[in-house]
Design brief:
Helix content is 23%, strand content 32%. By secondary structure, the chain is α+β, with helices and mostly antiparallel strands.
């Protein structure tokens, strides 16, 4: 009888806990691309998006700013052309490829410290929690 009473109590408690469909977007946090650095560099691309939609993007070589619209699961990114920086052609090509992928982002989702931006390509970022 006591076991049944405990089970009923557990069901009642679980029914009172709200269900969350997804975790909120981590505005103001640094998101690091889930990738290792390119040969000859320690730099890994990062993006930081503020609640007002302004964003700072550190690419493989250059840095730029962007305007980002974040919805419940939708996202659009309009990045400025980065200031030319002197770097290896591999890193400059990586910058252009990443900017192209970011411009094609249409959705986002978060699972813990992982934020995925999806469009033509899926980009995985890790929330910097240090």
């Amino acid at each position: 009888m006591t076991l049944i009473r405990c089970a009923r109590s557990a069901i009642l408690i679980l029914s009172l806990v709200p269900a969350y469909a997804s975790e909120p977007f981590p505005f103001g946090a640094e998101l690091m691309l889930d990738s290792g650095p390119l040969y000859g560099s320690k730099r890994i691309p990062m993006i930081e998006i503020e609640e007002d939609g302004t964003a700072a993007i550190d690419l493989w070589c250059a840095t730029t700013r962007a305007q980002v619209a974040v919805g419940d699961s939708s996202m659009t990114i309009l990045a400025e052309v980065p200031v030319a920086a002197q770097c290896a052609s591999e890193r400059a090509t990586g910058d252009q490829d990443l900017l192209t992928a970011l411009a094609q982002v249409t959705n986002w989702r978060r699972n813990g410290d992982i934020v995925e931006l999806s469009g033509a390509t899926t980009l995985r970022f890790r929330l910097m929690t240090n």
